Amino acid sequence: MPQLEVSSLTILLAQIAAILVVSRALGVITRGLGQPLVIAEVMAGILLGPSLLGWLWPEAMAALFPKESLSVLQRLSELGLVLFMFLVGLELDPKLLKGRTQASVAISHASIVLPFSLGAAAAWFLYDDYASGNTSFLSFMLFLGAAMSVTAFPVLARILSERHLMTSRVGAITIACAAVDDVTAWCILAFVVAVARTQGVVPALWTTSLALLYIAAMWFVIKPFLQRVGARVASREGLTPTVVAMILLLLLGSSALTEMIGIHALFGAFLFGAILPKEGKLAETLADKLETVAVILLLPLFFAYSGLRTQLGLVSEPGDWLVLGALIAIATLGKFGGSAVAARLTGMRWREASAIGILMNTRGLMELIVLNLGMDLGVISPTIFTMLVIMALVTTFATTPVLRWVYPDQELARDRSSETLDSMITSPPPFTVMMCVSDRTSGPGLVTMAAALQGTHADAARLFALHLRPASDRPSAELRYENQDDPESSPLAPLLSHGRELGVDVRPLGFVSSEPAEDIRRTAEAKHASLVLLGTHKPLLLGGRLSGTVREVIESAKVPVGVLVDRGLQKVEHALVAYVGSAEDLVALQFARRMALASRTQLTLLRLQASRFNEEARAMRTPVEQEIQSLERELRSAPLLARVIAPVSSADAVVAEARRGYDVVILGMSSEWDLDAGALSRRGSVWSDSPVSILALHRGLAAAAELAEPDLDTARLADPVSA
Question: What are the structural domains, with CATH classification, of the chain?
Answer without folding.
Answer: 8-412 (1.20.1530.20), 431-718 (3.40.50.12370)
